[in-house]
Design goal:
The chain is of the alpha+beta class and about 400 residues long. It is about 40% helix and about 25% strand.
């Protein structure tokens, strides 16, 4: 074969390999496409591509795959690691040994291309082959960078989805207010559903919004975040207490762009705490009342009973407290003791010898040992118990045995 024909054949081979290097954006697919051509078209015993990570070489692909268990490949692999460890950055290192020729091409910025042949390359062909190394290096590096970018994008997307899930399903209020015009940049479903924030059904009053604006200003002025309790009207029409934490958000230049608010509805917790405190005070009051009557002289019993009625009435915020006696022999009831708050007229004189027939519902409940709560005296049916309670000015009553 003449030199001209040989060179034309070389150019054809090199062009085919060059075309196999382009057009792929996945490293594995790229090497599956181009490495078989290096192997077959260049009559290699074996060929491989290595990538470099933190100074160490890792095999990406080798052909034929079975060659990895051979002594010849282990020798070539050891020579490659030696050259790399020596810091050799030459574009090509050729090692001939025991009838084989090892070509180590520097894939700058990516790793190394290893080609092993039984015969040496034609010098002219080798010179024309060398430019394919930087081409392959660029293609591999691009695939690697694209893979990293995809990993980052996938990670960011996962974080975005997680953040969205937290915001959408968190049983707390989350909102973001623009620092400059106080428009709402973000309102999570909890605040939309419970408060109507960011919707046409917002139940917050102007006074409540003014308080929120003031705590926003405090968050801007503070070094870190601020914590406060804010009273906000929910869509149920009731004022709820939100335990809020607010902090300012800055952009890359350090300028304040927004105020982030997190709010937990602690209304029920406050109610439970107050009820627990109330029960504790009631228990203490009952113990104090009970201890009052221990070894109490008879001439002081009436005064002690009146004082106990006062304490119990003040505890439940009642205006009047009294004790009745039932006489089942003659079927009447009489008011024995009465305490009245300031401005309340005593009724004890008019509540003597009251026939039981006039309050059968009251009596029936008491005989069962149960309390009775009359929430609205005016709602009672005419006659009977209403005729007894209404003249006293009672609006509600809680008789108990």
């Amino acid at each position: 074969m003449g030199d001209r024909m040989r060179r034309e054949l070389y150019q054809e081979i090199l062009l085919e390999i060059a075309l196999s290097i382009s057009g792929e954006f996945d490293l594995d697919k790229l090497l599956k496409k181009c490495l078989p051509l290096f192997q077959r078209k260049l009559n290699c015993l074996f060929s491989g591509v290595y990538s470099e990570t933190e100074g160490a070489l890792d095999l990406e692909r080798v052909l034929p795959t079975a060659i990895r268990s051979s002594d010849r490949y282990r020798w070539a692999h050891a020579e490659l690691l030696r050259v790399h460890a020596e810091g050799n950055t030459e574009s090509l290192v050729v090692i001939s040994h025991d009838g084989v020729h090892l070509y180590l091409m520097n894939l700058l910025g990516f790793g190394r291309l290893l080609l092993c042949r039984a015969t040496a390359f034609d010098p002219y062909f080798l010179k024309e082959l060398l430019p394919l190394a930087p081409m392959l290096a660029r293609a591999c590096t691009s695939c690697q960078e694209l893979a990293r970018r995809r990993e980052i994008e996938a990670s960011l997307e996962k974080e975005r989805q997680l953040t969205t899930a937290i915001i959408d399903h968190a049983p707390i209020g989350i909102w973001l207010t623009d620092y400059h015009d106080r428009s709402l940049l973000l309102v999570n479903p909890f605040m939309k559903k419970e408060v109507g924030l960011g919707t046409d059904d917002n139940r917050m009053s102007h006074e409540e919004m003014d308080v929120c604006a003031e705590t926003d200003h405090q968050a801007v002025a503070a070094e870190g975040s601020v914590e406060c309790d804010e009273r906000i009207t929910f869509k149920d029409g009731r004022q709820h207490t939100l335990k809020t934490i607010k902090t300012k958000i800055r952009d890359d230049d350090g300028s304040i762009t927004a105020i982030l608010g997190l709010g937990v509805d602690i209304t029920d917790a406050i109610k439970a705490q107050r009820e627990a405190q109330r029960q504790s005070r009631l228990q203490q009051l009952l113990m104090e009342i009970a201890s009052t009557y221990i070894n109490l002289p008879l001439d002081r019993v009436d005064d002690a009973i009146n004082a106990s009625l006062r304490d119990l009435a003040l505890f439940v915020d009642a205006d009047r407290a009294y004790i009745f006696d039932y006489d089942f022999t003659v079927r009447v009831s009489s008011n024995l003791f009465e305490w009245c708050n300031s401005g309340i007229q005593p009724q004890i004189a008019s509540l003597q010898q009251v026939p039981m027939v006039e309050f059968p519902d009251w009596l029936h409940v008491h005989l069962q040992g149960k309390p009775m709560y009359v929430a609205d005296v005016g709602a009672l049916p005419p006659g009977g118990l209403r005729n007894i309670l209404e003249p006293q000015g009672n609006r509600a009553c809680w008789p108990c045995r």
